[in-house]
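Dear support,

I submitted the protein below through the web form. The confirmation email said the job was done, but the results page showed an empty box. After a refresh the structure appeared. I'm attaching both so you can tell me whether what I see now is the final result or a partial one.
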Amino acid sequence: MEPPGPLDRADHIDHATRAFVAHRNLLFTVAYEMLGSAADAEDVLQETWLRWADVDLATVREERAYLVRIVTRQALDRLRALGRRKESYVGPWLPEPLLTAPDVAEDVELAESVSMAMLLVLETLQPTERAVFVLREVFALDYDEIAEAVDRSPAAVRQLAYRARAHVAARRPRGSTSPAETRAVLLAFQRAVETGELQSLLDVLAPDVVALSDGGGVRHALLRPVVGIDNVARLLAVGWWKRDAQRSVELVQINGGPGLLVRVDGEIDGVVAVRVENGYVTGAYHVRNPEKLSRVERETAVTR
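What the results page shows now:
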């Protein structure tokens, strides 16, 4: 068979581009949930496109499934490399926050799956377990499709899914929390940051609250988790944020739920997300690493 001529190649690229664009937001969401990094997810999408552009589309039965398979394999490769990179990361590593549209919160399962708290839970899974959990529990792929994506048998995938579900269930937030409860907690954080008035914030901290901050070695941040209400209270009392600068705090949608965007002297200084269980803060996540703040000024589309 002769190679395709210029017009055939142009038609191929046009078809491939339309299919890729149609599923791009889905592919980004898969990669982001596997990696916890928008920058790495974008790199994975670029690699996915390069491979997709060379696929014989006449052999593809279902474009969405094929693209998900490519992006999963690329994300798994990147996830394993990230594991080595995180070993030398300065201080706690937190996921890269995303400014998301309000309608993401309406899809409860999607909002939970991209939340900072859930992404940290997913960090405790092995790479293949994480891929299986994301594809099965979030995107509802069948076991045969997942098996092709991760190069395992359907039986092995079922076992991985079972283990991953049990692992996540033991670590996911306990008790239901409404967006209104989370918003109320963050308003208390907002008052504490803007006025230094801490009592309303201390009233909603759980006894075993954990505070994490991520400066990436570039900005001042906690070098290890701070655990317990007394320790977190002391941390807040001495000033988690600068007190010699002009601060502003905006309530925004971060990773599918309420979060705070903190500015110092007009410049973005960080993002605060919280994990709320039964009305109390059990986790507070403060991202200050400038390399992780590029997605908090414009909305990022995530979808299932």
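Response: this is the final, complete result; the empty box was a page-load delay. The CA atoms of residues 98 and 304 lie 16 Å apart.
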